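Supplementary Methods, section 5.1.

A reviewer requested that the exact input to the structure prediction be made available. We therefore reproduce it here, unchanged from the version used in the analyses.
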Amino acid sequence: MTDRSRLDTPLTSRRFNFNLDTEAVGQFSESIARFLGTGRYLAWQTIIVIVWIALNLFAVSLQWDPYPFILLNLAFSTQAAYAAPLILLAQNRQENRDRVSLDEDRRRALQTKADTEYLARELAALRLAVGEVVTRDYLRRELEELRDMLAQLQSPPSADGDEAAARPEHSERRSKK
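The structure derived from this sequence is encoded token-by-token as follows.
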């Protein structure tokens, strides 16, 4: 019995499986796109084109591409055919990085906003709590009033019935007068 007649075994593919690491291809395309956008690349391309045209116009024995420069046009077309998709791939990768960065910025902004609102609520609660806290002057005044009331309760009233005379501070004021 052959493997093809068995239904419980999958068929193996005889096709060549071409797997590429998309990250490696993306990095390679970005490096090419970065190079294509430099002044160095433009300078080298300009020099090559000038030498190509000069050799094909003036070096009669070396003319491999006569005047309409069809081979040069073919080279430029091939370069453009490969450069455009590589540049688009690099732009797509940059767009994905920008999207991730934007999402992270949004998340961080929302977290900052939530933190700020929380701190604002805490600050408002602290202001309310501080408003209810006893100040030193208030406490001093209350204690003085309590001392005066205790002094009135402890000292007997004077013979002339003047309650103010029973207070020690009032008696000190009288003696100074």
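The longest helix spans residues 70-131. These observations are discussed further in the main text.
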